[in-house]
Design brief:
Blueprint (H helix, E strand, L loop, with lengths): L8 E9 L3 H10 L6 E6 L8 E2 L2 E2 L3 E10 L3 H11 L8 E8 L6 H5 L6
Antiparallel strand pairs: 1-5, 1-6, 2-5, 3-4
Helix pairs in contact: 1-2
Organism: Thermosediminibacter litoriperuensis
GO molecular function: enzyme regulator activity
Protein name: Nitrogen regulatory protein P-II family
Length: 116
């Protein structure tokens, strides 16, 4: 059986070049997040057509998942964007998904440990 949380959550998904995920997490923490999950990936977008000596390079990416209380989403997203310059081409992207349900976090919130 699952508990219902009264807190609404968002998931901020940030995709950056390898080596920048820690900057994303630190900026998010300073803006009110408790942390994030870093996943390795590779890019296939328009900025990923680099070649070295005529050999295509598959750029390595890092994906940062940040579950956040929706009241903090705007502040955290802005901090992350500024920290890794997401407004510049080729730096990465971030987007927000509304989270319908959470499991495994509500019991901590109910005990007063504001894990977000």
């Amino acid at each position: 059986m699952t508990e219902d949380c009264n807190i609404k959550f968002d998931l901020i998904v940030t995709i950056v070049n390898k080596g920048f995920a820690e900057e994303v997490v630190e900026a998010a923490k300073k803006a009110g997040a408790e942390g994030g999950t870093i996943i390795d990936g590779r890019g296939t977008g328009i900025h990923e057509n680099a070649k070295l000596f005529g050999i295509p390079i598959e750029p390595e990416k890092e994906i940062v998942l940040t579950l956040i209380d929706s009241t903090k989403t705007g502040k955290v997203l802005e901090a992350v964007s500024n920290a890794v310059e997401l407004n510049k081409p080729g730096k990465g992207i971030a987007f927000v998904l509304e989270v319908e349900k959470t499991v495994g976090i509500c019991h901590m919130l109910n005990k007063g440990n504001n894990i977000v």
